[in-house]
């Protein structure tokens, strides 16, 4: 036998041996592909394919993918805060009109007025009787809302503005009692509680009807949709009567809103060379928490809160045309002025610094945030 044939035979035997070993390994360790395996389009997103493969590898053969888990009873209870018209969900508690008046003044009046009459464009919670048929109806708790549970649920979930879900149950009862009193629905000695909650009759409750649009309207809009040349001519048939409906909308067109005619000096933003520009930028972001009530910069005016131009060095509670709380007015009468130290203390805990202030904001607990916003406001001081 030639030398070449011997080498070829040895190579063939080695290859055959390797194939035999590989076959035995595969037979013992690699499962067959199931006939009902879920197949995926080869053009699918790679990230999705990886997620699918990871989930499918742990999924039972005949069950769900088992992503996540069922929520516990405690977790559901933490989110389940709703109160139904029949009283389901109401916690035990009570609150009087007398207590509610104080709480409303401290937490709600800065936006809704001392008598729930509304400030500026913030919602009116009282009044509006007999206006629902008007072209511009006033929809308040007393004139429009069909269920008292809506008021209790909303106050409990979302108020006070910027400090939601900080009220105790008894405080919510008291505030709702005061709103009822402001609408002349209860007397001044009334105490609202879970026991008498359903006894309160809302004037407009009988004027709501069951939503029958699935039967009466949906069919009219289920046909072919027109996407072009749907009308021969387009013309303006009506114009909005109220244009300034969004509080603090800086881009809104000028309207005939009656504002205090106060001369406010123009302020040019000239950053102090000694202040870190990054700190100013951080303060501008923090100021977003304040923009709902305050304006600063060129053209700033008093709105729900006073304008903040020239704030540093300004006498406390003394801007013409703005109605301050008694606490801040008295500080100004004592010739106290805003500086970095007093502003920082006030911003940390407004109601702790000036008991009785109408500012509903809970405060900035972070020293870094207070330092940043002071640097930002310093730009607008002469």
Automatic annotation (TrEMBL):
The Cytochrome c domain, residue ranges = 95-183, 278-381
**Keyword Electron transport set for record:** yes
One of this protein's Pfam families, by short name?
Answer: Cytochrom_C
**What is the annotated signal peptide range for this record?**
1-26
The lineage's top-level taxon is Bacteria
Q: Which GO terms describe its molecular function?
A: electron transfer activity; heme binding; metal ion binding
Query: Which keywords annotate this record?
Result: Electron transport, Heme, Iron, Metal-binding, Signal, Transport
List the SUPFAM superfamilies: Cytochrome c (SSF46626)
Q: Which Gene3D superfamilies match?
A: Cytochrome c-like domain (1.10.760.10)
What PANTHER family does its record include? CYTOCHROME C (PTHR11961)
> What name goes with this protein?
Sulfur dehydrogenase subunit SoxD
What organism does the UniProt record list as the source?
Poseidonocella pacifica
């Amino acid at each position: 036998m030639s030398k070449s044939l011997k080498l070829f035979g040895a190579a063939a035997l080695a290859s055959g041996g390797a194939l035999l070993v590989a076959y035995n390994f595969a037979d013992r360790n690699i499962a067959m592909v199931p006939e009902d395996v879920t197949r995926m389009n080869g053009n699918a997103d790679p990230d999705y394919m990886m997620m699918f493969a990871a989930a499918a590898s742990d999924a039972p053969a005949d069950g769900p993918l088992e992503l996540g888990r069922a929520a516990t009873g405690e977790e559901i209870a933490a989110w389940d805060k709703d109160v139904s018209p029949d009283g389901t969900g109401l916690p035990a508690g009570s609150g009087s009109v007398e207590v509610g008046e104080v709480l409303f003044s401290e937490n709600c009046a800065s936006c809704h007025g001392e008598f729930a009459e509304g400030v500026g464009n913030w919602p009116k919670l009282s009044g509006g009787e007999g206006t629902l048929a008007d072209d511009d109806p006033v929809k308040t708790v007393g004139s429009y809302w069909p269920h008292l549970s809506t008021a209790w649920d909303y106050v409990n979930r979302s108020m006070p503005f910027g400090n939601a879900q900080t009220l105790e149950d008894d405080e919510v009862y008291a505030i709702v009692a005061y709103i009822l009193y402001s609408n002349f629905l209860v007397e001044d000695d009334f105490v609202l509680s879970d026991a008498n909650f359903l006894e309160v009759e809302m004037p407009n409750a009988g004027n709501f009807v069951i939503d029958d649009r699935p039967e009466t309207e949906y069919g009219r809009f289920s046909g072919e949709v027109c996407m072009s040349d749907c009308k021969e001519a387009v013309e303006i048939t009506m114009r909005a009567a109220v244009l300034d409906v969004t509080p603090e909308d800086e881009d809104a067109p000028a309207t005939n809103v009656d504002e205090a005619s106060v001369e406010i000096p123009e302020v040019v933003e000239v950053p102090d060379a000694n202040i870190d520009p990054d700190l100013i930028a951080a303060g501008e972001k923090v100021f977003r928490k304040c923009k709902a009530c305050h304006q600063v910069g060129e053209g700033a005016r008093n709105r729900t809160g006073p304008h903040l131009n020239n704030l540093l060095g300004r006498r406390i509670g003394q801007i013409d045309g703005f109605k301050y709380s008694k606490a801040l007015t008295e500080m100004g009468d004592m010739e106290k002025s805003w500086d970095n130290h007093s502003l920082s203390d006030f911003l940390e805990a407004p109601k702790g610094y000036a008991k009785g202030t109408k500012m509903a904001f809970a405060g900035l607990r972070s020293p870094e945030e207070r330092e940043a916003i002071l640097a930002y406001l310093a730009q607008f001081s002469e």
